Amino acid sequence: MGEDVQVDLYPNPEDTLRQLETVAPLDGEAETFRRELVRLYASSVAAGAALSIRED
To answer: What residues make up the domain containing 56?
Structure first.
């Protein structure tokens, strides 16, 4: 299992990605998956919903 990483989720997905890349760098397929999760998070913020993301 992976280590829990706590980050702030910003309305701007690029700000969230920059923070994630600093504390938990990934590459390849894992990074693509994380970018998609952040995009979904940004969409949920725009819709007024909440999304919890945990990396394992």
So the answer is: 1-56
